[in-house]
Amino acid sequence: MDKRDEDALEAVKLYYRNGLSQAQVAKELGVSRPTVAKLIQHGRAKGFVSIEIHDPRETSSELGDRLQERFGLQEAVVTYRSTTACADVLEEIGRAGAELLSHLVRDGMSVGISWGQTMYSIAEHLKPRTLCDIDVVQLKGGSSHSDHSTLDFETLYLFCQALNGTAHPLPLPVVFDDVRTKNVVEADRHIAEILDMGRNTDLVVFTVGSVQPSSLLLNLGYFTEKQKEELLSRAVGDACSRFYTRTGEIAVPSIDKVTVGITLEELAKRPLRLLVAGGMRKVEAIYTALKMGLATHLVTDRPTATRILRHR
Q1: Which one, of 285, 291, 273, lies nearest residue 114 by Cα?
Q2: Is the pTM of this model over 0.85?
Q3: DSSP labels for 218-257?
Q4: Nearest CA to 163 among 122, 121, 204, 128?
Q5: Nearest 5°: phi and psi at 48?
Q6: Number of H helices, E strands in the chain
Q7: Contact predicate 306/286, CB 8 Å
Q8: Tens-of-pLDDT digits for all 312 residues of the chain?
Q9: Which residues of 232-246 are buried (b: 16+ CB within 10 A; e: fewer)?
Q10: Contact (CB, 8 A) for 295 and 68
Q11: Are 111 and 134 in contact (CB under 8 A)?
Q12: What is the phi-psi region of residue 221: left when phi exceeds 0, alpha when psi lies from -120 to 50, beta otherwise?
């Protein structure tokens, strides 16, 4: 550390720690006021000073309150850390989602779940409960036509294990090639029963996806290149594999007609709807889902919550 560094360190201590004015610091050090200003600037550049701004509007509880008020939610949980790293966000919202779910679920409930990385993170963080008469229902098909895994059965298994529930899997692709084939499969008595259970669940736990070339749903082998182009140009997100536009409309009706599982309209009618989603890429998808009234409860991370509240 040279003399300039030492002088800068002394100046920033007097200015920031002791609360002296620049004129008082100049008098204390026997230098001019402009010199003090330069020393303080040098001290900040060298990292001798770290300034944090604590905006009360951006604390987790405050953000949660604002989300509740703006979107008419019953509860909004915002994870505290301000990280934007995908793995950290997934870990945080998974843990918070599992905790909120444990407060919502009660004996005798039927719980509908979707699949994906966020849902699997929730499942991994669930703590065992001694609940009775719990049904865990898969809300949409999850069989993949590619090397990518949807983690649907793993998620269902972990939910049942933690909630002491009975599993009701939907062992189908989430998207069929044509309506006729889909209708024939859905007419099967056992499949129809599971689909009906999904439409009548007491509590739904789901996430939303962004619509990008790298999105999991677009890489499961379900869609043709033309269909992918349509989705990328029209959709901003999906909930339970139902794609929607910025205005909350069905993005591509022809694709929606061959999709297996709960519809957006049916989802919005469930009494308790816990949406767990985070990350900058999902801001538009989450915002639109909230505007559509798809959720009664929300778990997200702080940077995402801040961006959602700024969204117009």
Answers
A1: 273
A2: no
A3: GGSS-S-HHHHHHHHHH-SEEETTEEE-TTSSBS-HHHHT
A4: 128
A5: -75, -15
A6: 14, 10
A7: no
A8: 789 999 999 999 999 988 899 999 999 999 999 999 999 999 988 888 877 655 554 456 899 999 999 999 999 999 986 666 787 899 999 999 999 999 999 999 999 999 999 999 999 999 999 999 999 999 998 877 667 788 899 999 999 999 999 999 999 999 999 999 999 999 999 999 999 999 999 999 999 999 999 898 998 889 999 999 999 999 999 999 999 999 999 999 999 999 999 999 999 999 999 999 999 999 999 999 999 999 999 999 999 999 999 987
A9: eebbbbbbbbbbbee
A10: no
A11: yes
A12: left
Query: Which domains are seen in the chain, by residue range?
Result: 3-45 (1.10.10), 56-310 (3.40.50.1360)
